[in-house]
Amino acid sequence: MQSIISVQALTKAYASGHQALKGIDLDIRRGEIFALLGPNGAGKTTLISIICGIVNPSSGVVLADGHDIVRDYRAARSKIGLVPQELSTDSFETVWATVNFSRGLFGKPANPALVEKLLRELSLWDKRDSRIMALSGGMKRRVMIAKALSHEPQILFLDEPTAGVDVELRRDMWEMVHRLRASGVTIILTTHYIEEAEQMADRIGVISQGRIILVEEKARLMAQLGKKQLSLQLQSPLAAIPEEFAQYPLELSADGQTLVYTFDAQGEQTGIAPLLRRLGDHGIDFKSLSSSESSLEDIFVSLVRQPR
Ligand SMILES: Nc1ncnc2c1ncn2[C@@H]1O[C@H](COP(=O)(O)OP(=O)(O)OP(=O)(O)O)[C@@H](O)[C@H]1O
Ligand SMILES: [Mg+2]
């Protein structure tokens, strides 16, 4: 199946000389939710801005639904809706006029029923006659989403859609993203809330210092890199881990009360049973035990941690 977005050997050096993208290759599959993660300044917004034709690439090729974003800009852009990271919506226009105008910009005939549906879905219907400048930040963000969807794009970019958004709206947005995906829209989002990517994405891409360092199915990523931990709350505190256990991936908490055993979530054998037996043999008893699994956040942090 042909990918809906294809990025090949893309680089970007800004006029300042800063090399923001250092050779990006990336394929986005039709109909997926793709989360692009990376620390501040990694190049996420630059990449999205190039795909959306807002920033010129230095070299490389980007195809959106088969259309070259430079040579065939209009056709490519008409497929794409963008909710930018920076809101630029302070205007005297009303919500209703703004969203209808956006649709017109793409040469689409007026469709009041569609705009009404969008505004209702985004809980903006009551605000349709308000001027944009009179809306709260979260409402403005929703207007940006309505604008981005007004021309019925097949690809939707959400650059940090939930930054500064309250819990309820965030949940509404997740639902909306799932509905859009169900209707066939491909969604690419960036977020610093890793938990959001964990909940929503089919695939995860990690970008760091202008390079894609990983692209993987979310489920695979979590299974491959995920670690599990078993914590044992000890009957009596230990001063140190006994010599005999030096070979085990064990850590002792500062207060000596808890032993933490880390094991591979993928592994066939966890090694827990023999460990517990050996601990028992050495008279190390525990009151209780609990286990935990590393989150996508742990995985992400370990991936982008810079050697200093
Ligand atoms: N217009 C510009 N001129 C010069 N440098 C820029 C420009 N825009 C971005 N940069 C630089 O390019 C790099 C990547 O920025 P970009 O906005 O793409 O990062 P990001 O991954 O979106 O970060 P964030 O998570 O903070 O939004 C940064 O070092 C930034 O300073
Ligand atoms: Mg950004």
TrEMBL record:
Coiled coil: none
Domain ABC transporter intervals: 5-234
Record keywords, A-Z: ATP-binding, Nucleotide-binding, Transport
Pfam families: ABC_tran
InterPro entries the UniProt entry points to: AAA+_ATPase, ABC_transporter-like_ATP-bd, ABC_transporter-like_CS, ABC_transporter_ATP-binding, P-loop_NTPase
GO MF annotations, alphabetized: ATP binding; ATP hydrolysis activity
Family annotation (PROSITE patterns): ABC_TRANSPORTER_1, ABC_TRANSPORTER_2
Entry-linked PANTHER family: ABC TRANSPORTER ATP-BINDING PROTEIN
Name recorded for this polypeptide: ABC-2 type transport system ATP-binding protein
